[in-house]
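4.2 Preliminary Data

To establish feasibility before requesting continued support, the project team ran the inverse folding procedure on a target of 507 residues. The structure was first converted into the token representation described in Section 3, and no sequence information of any kind was made available to the design step. The complete token record follows.
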């Protein structure tokens, strides 16, 4: 069967899923190579980590701007431009001659990823009918799980059989395929675009706020929380935030319409997403310390064990979305974050003799909880905004995930070092790996309990969301169904101003 004969929603799903897999894999594949890059360029880990950190900062700082650009200029266009920029970054990274060059080229890749991540979910939401939105976003969640699971494996294989440059040039053909699929399969409805132009001052101040805040959070432990660098970043972050709010309240076409946060469904869903990732990030950061430093597992064994969480997301995210569509259960997201918290509490009970199957069982609890939470929460965010702002909503999800993960990593690291150093009777520690295994285990346990508490805060926040009214299955009596290839009345309605949009759960 020709791809062009598939209903449009599945063509869009194929194109975006391929790109989402590629984008998600990029975030995890580079982390595997950091020790190799440290040896290759003969630079300390504290320098090499910027190859990963810079990409995260740039992507987070630009995603909301990319989402808004998609709303204004066409989501397909921004999505495709994103892959072009990402591909250029891959080519340049594959020929980098120094770690500084590689960091700069990773920043270029991150600009491209922001375009793809800021528009992908918006394209999917536009393509699928409202009553299938949870299922569609659940499928995307499964692809995210597959990308997270595959990245370390592919990275390890490429590093095992080639040099570090293979991580970049081997993916260039895949980027070309992602671009071709987007050009061939995705369409861009002109009627959904709102009037207005991109708010450049707002975009600049938003980037300054997010990048400086996340950099301060990520480097606070290394540079010292009261160091001049961190205090300067905090001052820049606060100043940028104040300027951003002033700009956004006065412009006719804001990067992020602050009125959206008056809608309880939107604000609570984004807030609970951030709190959820504050907890989930603990597994990403703490488990390698436990498995490698405390248990002396190899990096290959560690990668396979850590693949448990994305594997659960791959298996259960679609079903979670389908349940959300069919039953519209208000507290599904709350249950999901609660299960994540239970998984983190279970991880806080590991000891020096816990077997690998029991470790994986604990990780599986958290992965299942994440799958239960993510699909309906994403659906609530995407369904709470007018269709001409789907790019902004999609970008809010991606930004919320990045912010939650970054802050969560910093909190977990600070708790681990503080508790482990006290347990070992050491006043100050530059590298947590220098601590004895018993002290590390004490810090890991406490850090997992703190992460579980943060996740429970997310569950409390999620429980406050208002009931949502989603479309019932099938058209009303006497009214023909709209075929997938035909735009519905909602899709062809003229764009409206945010201030004039009434959404469910407005505060």
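Position-by-position output of the design step:
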């Amino acid at each position: 069967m020709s791809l062009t004969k598939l209903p449009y929603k599945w063509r869009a799903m194929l194109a975006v899923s391929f790109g989402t897999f590629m984008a998600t894999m990029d975030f995890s594949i580079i982390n595997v190579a950091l020790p190799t890059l440290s040896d290759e360029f003969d630079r300390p880990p504290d320098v090499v980590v910027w190859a990963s950190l810079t990409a995260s900062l740039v992507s987070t700082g630009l995603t909301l701007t990319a989402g808004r650009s998609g709303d204004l200029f066409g989501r397909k266009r921004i999505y495709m431009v994103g892959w072009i920029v990402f591909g250029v970054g891959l080519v340049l990274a594959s020929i980098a001659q120094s770690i500084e060059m590689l960091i700069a080229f990773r920043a270029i890749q991150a600009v491209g990823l922001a375009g793809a991540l800021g528009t992908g979910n918006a394209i999917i939401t536009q393509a699928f009918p409202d009553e299938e939105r949870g299922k569609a976003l659940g499928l995307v969640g499964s692809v995210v799980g597959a990308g997270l699971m595959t990245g370390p494996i592919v990275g390890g294989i490429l590093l095992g059989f080639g040099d570090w440059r293979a991580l970049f040039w081997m993916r260039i053909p895949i980027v070309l395929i992602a671009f071709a699929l987007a050009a061939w399969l995705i369409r861009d409805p002109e009627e959904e675009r709102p009037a207005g132009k991109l708010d450049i001052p707002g975009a600049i101040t938003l980037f300054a706020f997010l990048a400086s805040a996340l950099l301060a959070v990520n480097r606070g432990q290394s540079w010292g929380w009261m160091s001049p660098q961190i205090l300067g970043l905090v001052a820049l972050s606060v100043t940028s935030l104040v300027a951003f709010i002033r700009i956004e309240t006065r412009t006719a076409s804001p990067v992020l319409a602050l009125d959206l946060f008056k809608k309880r469904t939107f604000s609570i869903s984004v807030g609970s997403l951030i709190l959820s990732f504050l907890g989930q990030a603990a597994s990403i950061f703490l488990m390698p310390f436990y498995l490698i430093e405390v248990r002396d597992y190899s990096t290959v064994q560690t990668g396979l064990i850590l693949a448990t969480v994305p594997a659960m997301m791959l298996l259960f995210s679609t079903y979670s979305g389908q349940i959300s569509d069919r039953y519209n259960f208000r507290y599904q997201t709350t249950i999901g974050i609660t299960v994540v918290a239970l998984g983190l509490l279970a991880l806080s009970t590991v000891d020096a003799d816990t077997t690998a199957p029991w470790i994986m069982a604990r990780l599986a609890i958290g992965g299942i909880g994440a799958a239960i939470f993510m699909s309906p929460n994403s659906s609530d965010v995407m369904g709470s905004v007018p269709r001409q702002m789907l790019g902004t909503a999609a970008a809010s999800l991606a930004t919320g995930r990045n912010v939650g993960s970054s802050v969560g990593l910093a909190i977990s690291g600070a708790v681990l070092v503080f508790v482990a150093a006290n347990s070992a009777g050491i006043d100050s520690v530059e590298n947590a790996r220098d601590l004895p295994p018993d002290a590390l285990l004490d810090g890991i346990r406490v850090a997992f309990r703190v992460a579980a508490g943060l996740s429970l805060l997310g569950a409390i926040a999620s429980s406050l969301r208002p009931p949502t009214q989603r479309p019932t299955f099938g058209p009303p009596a006497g009214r023909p169904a709209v075929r997938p290839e035909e735009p519905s009345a909602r899709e062809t309605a003229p764009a409206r101003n945010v201030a004039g949009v009434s959404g469910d759960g407005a505060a």
